[in-house]
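Tutorial sheet, problem 5. The two components below are modelled jointly, 758 residues in total.
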Amino acid sequence: MSKRRIFCLAAAASAIALAAAACGAPDDEGEDRGAVPDDATDCANYEQYGDLEGETVSILGSIRDTEADEMVEAWSYFESCTGATIDYEGSGEFESDMKVRVDGGNAPDIALFPQPGLMANFAADLKPASDEVSKLATEGWTEDWLNYGTIDGTLYAAPNSSNAKSFIWYSPSFFSDNGYEVPTTWDELIELSDTIAADGVMPWCVGFESGGATGWPGTDWIEDIVLREGTDLYDQWVNHEIPFNDPQIVAAIDKAGTILTNEEYIYNGTDTISSTAFQEAAYPILDGGCAMHRQASFYGAMWPADTNVAEDGDVFAFRFPESNEGDNTMLVGGEFVAAFDDSESTEMVRQFLASELYHNARLQTGPWSTARQGVDPANATTPINQFATEILTDPAVTVRFDGSDLMPGEVGASSFWTGMVQWVDGDKTSQQMADDIEASWP
Amino acid sequence: MSTDMQTPVQGRPIAESRGDRIRRVLSSRFASIFALVIAVLWTIPTAGLFISSLRPEDDIRASGWWTVFTDPSFTLDTYNYVLYSDSQGGGLIRNLVNTIVITIPGVLVPVAFAAMAAYALSWIDFKGRNLLYIAIFALQVVPLQMALIPLLSFFSQGLHIGDLAIMPAWNLSGVNTIVQVWIAHSIFGLPLAIFLLHNFMRELPSDVMEAARIDGASHSQIFRKVVLPLVTPAIASIAIFQFLWVWNDFLVGRTFGGGEATRPLTAVLGDMAGTWGFGWTRLPAAAFIAIIVPLVVFLLLQRYFVRGLLAGSVKG
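Model answer (structure tokens):
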């Protein structure tokens, strides 16, 4: 390499460095952060965890970006009061990372499993919940929840966050201006859709596109409907006690089809569903393009920055209507806190993560919802998360975990997704789709 | 009959050799235009990426990069956020440093070892030399992915036969795990580097070696004073290949590294969009930061590339 070239290289490098340095650090954007919770900052509340000076606990999870920052902030007081360090790593390839690390003997101390089914695969390496953690879990969560943290009769994990999935987003002002009522039954929902369509507005916005996971928003639709046909049917379906192509399931898919494959209902037409990004699918609600969008409570964070997400604001959500009289169900998602290590420090972090203290603090550090009994939903930073937390902590609500996260990966993270896409695209009938998914069940 | 066979075929100019003909065809106006079209087509995605990286977030969400020509609006905010934000979805500057720290030993170590091994395998006579060479060469057939879990468990649990510990567990954590990444990159890079360098060194005339030996040079002197200067272009090209491989690596850095402290650029790039993929508008800027260094290296050193591609594989 000649002198001139070395000079070029050095010049290029320093130019980049200069340009970079000139920008400086960006302002901290803390608009959604709530006030620092008083209880959580008082070290007296952490005395029970003892002195963990110099200990490090590693946590691996699928939570990334802003949500991860807010979570880290919620346990930062635990760190400063006990002296422990929590080393959090968020991974977009959680499933494969977990497998490689556990097989290679390099498992994290604690893993936040977004799928109970995946957690069960690692049961042999997991440490069961201690008596103390079990006690916190039993007082903190309903039996529906604990069932998902239990493998073969042993409790392994308490939940971390919880999302309410059976939500339909709408514009409260659009509804009140036109005299529409929030529907409470499926028949009312269809009736309302017909009325809105007759008034010249498309009732539904739907988008299934999500990169490599395209189709998953569709699986939530089917789960919501099957769950409302009956919780027993739902449990049998996700546990594969009845085949995926059982007539009742096919009927439920057809029921979803009265909306999803109805050209009169879908904004921009059904053929755009699979190519519309789910993150932005509901935006037309804001300018009156469509009226409703089914998506979980976390969608509250995806609206454009200046949207007022509140019951009297631009957009809000109502609960997915029940099909049977007297039912009170909610489809949920969330993570489970499982441990691969039984040291004192890991145990203390587990106890802390299952405590009311942490859940109240986390509610206040950013948009989040939880099913932990005893938290104050008013701590939630946004109205939608307060609404979700109220429902999730209500013991009267029957809770079922997202079915595609409970099914084997070959189905729940593969053929169910692609099946949904082929079905809304019109490439397959509901029967063909269900048959194909059944055939892919391992 | 026999005289007919010997006469040259009519119509083809005798003066033009095959090489000349190829050269003439490839440098014709038509071929140049064709090459230009291909170059433009291949550059469009990168250009689009670059333009996107400079657009405000809302614009990226709302419209394609080509609308910039009718409605230009540029900002460096995305770069600023991606590089310097202290949140989980930014702060690439830390990972840029990590990648550099991983890459430099990840290139120097295997290249140095490969050069010495290649010399030994080509110019030092010892028993089983060819067998050893074939064994190393054969290692290229083993996919890296197959070695991931065994190697990881070697680091984290040591090596045991029954109860006999042959190698204790390393028990590295945090930033120290970068050693594992260096070793893994060296191991995975060595077979190909040895193979290419060996073939290149074999081609050196044996007269040079013999002359040096008659003058009383030892193997280490021959290696340093005779062979190394002669194979510099080959070493440079292998170093470039290894550099690109290590820089762009995702799997090794992610598997053997110890979390946040050692995560390379590529691993963060994959997670940058956030839990729900909502932050994808940061990806163009982040991707551009990731490609700029290899791009500069490639443009400055591209002549070594071509030489390196030919080195060892083609005689003459």
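Marking note: The first strand of chain A starts at residue 56 and ends at 61. Full credit if you identified this.
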